[in-house]
UniProtKB/TrEMBL annotation:
<protein>
    <submittedName>
        <fullName>PKHD-type hydroxylase</fullName>
    </submittedName>
</protein>
<feature type="binding site">
    <location>
        <position position="157"/>
    </location>
    <ligand>
        <name>Fe cation</name>
    </ligand>
</feature>
<dbReference type="GO" id="GO:0006879">
    <property type="term" value="P:intracellular iron ion homeostasis"/>
</dbReference>
<dbReference type="GO" id="GO:0016706">
    <property type="term" value="F:2-oxoglutarate-dependent dioxygenase activity"/>
</dbReference>
<dbReference type="InterPro" id="IPR005123">
    <property type="entry name" value="Oxoglu/Fe-dep_dioxygenase_dom"/>
</dbReference>
<keyword id="KW-0223">Dioxygenase</keyword>
<keyword id="KW-0560">Oxidoreductase</keyword>
<dbReference type="InterPro" id="IPR044862">
    <property type="entry name" value="Pro_4_hyd_alph_FE2OG_OXY"/>
</dbReference>
<keyword id="KW-0847">Vitamin C</keyword>
<feature type="binding site">
    <location>
        <position position="167"/>
    </location>
    <ligand>
        <name>2-oxoglutarate</name>
    </ligand>
</feature>
<feature type="domain" description="Fe2OG dioxygenase">
    <location>
        <begin position="78"/>
        <end position="176"/>
    </location>
</feature>
<dbReference type="GO" id="GO:0006974">
    <property type="term" value="P:DNA damage response"/>
</dbReference>
<dbReference type="InterPro" id="IPR006620">
    <property type="entry name" value="Pro_4_hyd_alph"/>
</dbReference>
<dbReference type="Pfam" id="PF13640">
    <property type="entry name" value="2OG-FeII_Oxy_3"/>
</dbReference>
<dbReference type="GO" id="GO:0005506">
    <property type="term" value="F:iron ion binding"/>
</dbReference>
<dbReference type="GO" id="GO:0031418">
    <property type="term" value="F:L-ascorbic acid binding"/>
</dbReference>
<keyword id="KW-0479">Metal-binding</keyword>
Length: 225
């Protein structure tokens, strides 16, 4: 399942993010790639270890993790640390698949889902599409700044070369409470149905209560804690 969440960041938050990125250091992005992926990764990554960078990290993680659509679609249990990448001058990130496990100790996660939060307006760079090989088709996406794309970590994907301008994006990974992707999709469909029914049925109706019970019981059945 591939989902685009529009306007996860508003214009004020985008401006604050860009201002903060003017104050951080940047380094070769290949340092954070796996053994195979580093051969096809040509970008720079922001150092978020300083006070301004850490504040930015907390803001972005709070916005991403708290979004209701991401919560419904992903059922997140743990998030990786976020990365912010800058790609320009024909750089990109060739075909690769994400590591199955990331982090160490208590921060270690199984990567069920990946996400890219676009921070640059698409008109400010050429190329730079996120290209994802889904079953039976390939999807290339280049949404507006502030939009987030959520997709399975196990796919082969790439960032197409940026032939003009600069592409800045925030990327991360999460481990879901619901390991099975088909189960997550069923729950997401049911959450969307519940949202629709709440607009037409009275609170406490038997239909809504039955749907609430069914969603809760499926989570009990499928969740890994």
């Amino acid at each position: 399942m591939l989902i685009t969440i529009s306007s996860l960041l508003n214009q004020t938050e985008l401006a604050e993010t860009r201002d903060a990125l003017e104050t951080v250091e940047w380094s070769d992005g290949a340092k954070t790639a796996g053994r195979t992926a580093r051969n096809v990764k040509q970008n720079r990554q922001a150092d978020l270890s300083g006070s301004r960078g850490q504040a930015l990290h907390e803001l972005l993680l709070r916005k991403i993790s708290g979004h209701p659509v991401l919560q419904a679609a992903a059922r997140p249990a743990k998030f990786s640390r976020l990365l912010i990448s800058e790609t320009a001058d024909h750089g990109g990130y060739g075909d690769h698949t994400d590591n199955a496990l990331m982090g160490r100790g208590a921060a270690r996660i199984r990567t069920d889902l990946s996400f890219t939060l676009f921070l640059s307006e698409p008109a400010r760079y050429e190329g730079g599409e996120l290209v994802i090989d889904m079953p039976g088709y390939t999807q290339a996406v280049k949404p507006d700044a502030g939009d987030l794309v959520l997709y399975p970590s196990g796919t082969i994907h790439q960032v197409a070369p940026v032939t003009k301008g600069t592409r800045i994006a925030c990327v991360g990974w999460l481990q879901s409470l619901i390991r099975d992707a088909a189960c997550r999709e069923i729950l997401f469909d049911m959450e969307n149905l519940r949202a629709s029914l709440r607009a037409s049925l009275p609170q406490g109706s038997r239909e809504l209560l039955t749907l609430d019970k069914s969603i809760a019981n499926l989570v009990r059945l499928w969740a890994e804690t």
